[in-house]
TrEMBL record:
The keyword DNA-binding applies. Keywords: DNA-binding. GO terms for molecular function: carbohydrate derivative binding; DNA binding; DNA-binding transcription factor activity. GO terms for biological process: carbohydrate derivative metabolic process. This is DNA-binding transcriptional regulator, MurR/RpiR family, contains HTH and SIS domains. It comes from Isobaculum melis. It comes from the Bacteria. Residues 118-255 form the SIS domain. The keyword Membrane does not apply. Residues 2-78 form the HTH rpiR-type domain.
Length: 256
């Protein structure tokens, strides 16, 4: 079977700037496409549908439908092939997760000072708000409930209507935590735009390295879906981050 990831890389110099955006997103978040039709993918990564179609045709496919089918089959078969070789699924998956966790200190994803800085800002803030939509809602809610046990009360910003301007929901005294794996969620980014417009202090927790946002700090976690044949969710690391943050807040409160 054709290695579609390598095929995307091999044609990289032939892409237009818009097509390179498509390629970059698929290479960084290979399972991203499995959840998207062409319209939602185009909107999420801010390119036109025609750019996606041209990208697919550059690779030799008739269009997005054929490419998505073959790409989904490729991702699934990669996982199956790995699983057939292993001697113990549980041990192999735990080892794979350990490898990703080891990347945090080894590749300087987040540092102690980052977590303690956020912990201090949360403890000092008069208002803390958390943004999480879609699959990011559960880890965002888990943080909310964990913080309550530490007597830190936050507002979850998840059930919001679409509007061109949501800045009225925030003020410059807010500390805002944003959970977004790829930074491409339209709903999340709409609320985020409101927080930034209101000049709130925004911290973004993500696995996307190439986002360009005017936030207080980006807290980047390893991308577990990249270079990994197993079916992993990047949201799992959000829960680990929550534990790191809650422990930092607990330490801060004891020393304050």
């Amino acid at each position: 079977m054709i290695n579609l990831m390598q095929l995307i890389k091999d044609h990289y110099d032939q892409y237009t700037p818009q097509e390179k955006i498509v390629a970059d997103n698929l290479l960084e978040f290979p399972r991203f496409i499995l959840e998207k039709n062409i319209s939602s993918l185009a909107a999420s990564i801010n390119v036109s549908r025609n750019s996606i179609t041209r990208f697919c045709k550059t690779l030799g496919f008739s269009g997005y439908t054929e490419f998505k089918y073959e790409f989904s089959k490729y991702i699934t078969q990669q996982s199956d092939r790995k699983n057939q070789k292993q001697t113990g699924l549980v041990a192999d998956i735990i080892e794979a997760y350990k490898g990703k966790l080891d990347e945090i200190p080894a590749q300087n994803f987040i540092q102690d000072e980052d977590v303690f800085y956020l912990a201090e800002e949360i403890c000092k803030a008069s208002s803390v708000k958390i943004i999480g939509t879609g699959k990011s809602v559960p880890p965002a809610l888990q943080l909310k409930y964990s913080l309550q046990t530490l007597e830190v009360y936050v507002q979850m910003m998840d059930s919001l209507y679409f509007s061109d301007d949501l800045s009225f929901l925030f003020n410059e005294d807010d500390v805002v935590l944003v959970y977004s794996v790829s930074g491409k969620s339209l709903a999340t980014n709409q609320v985020l735009a409101g927080a930034l417009k209101a000049k709130a202090k925004v911290f973004m927790i993500t696995t996307a390295k190439k986002l360009s946002l005017d936030v207080e700090k980006m807290l980047i976690l390893p991308n577990v879906s990249k270079n990994n044949p197993f079916i992993f969710s990047n949201h799992t690391l959000f829960y680990i981050f929550n534990d790191l943050l809650c422990n930092a807040i607990s330490y801060y409160k004891k020393e304050a």
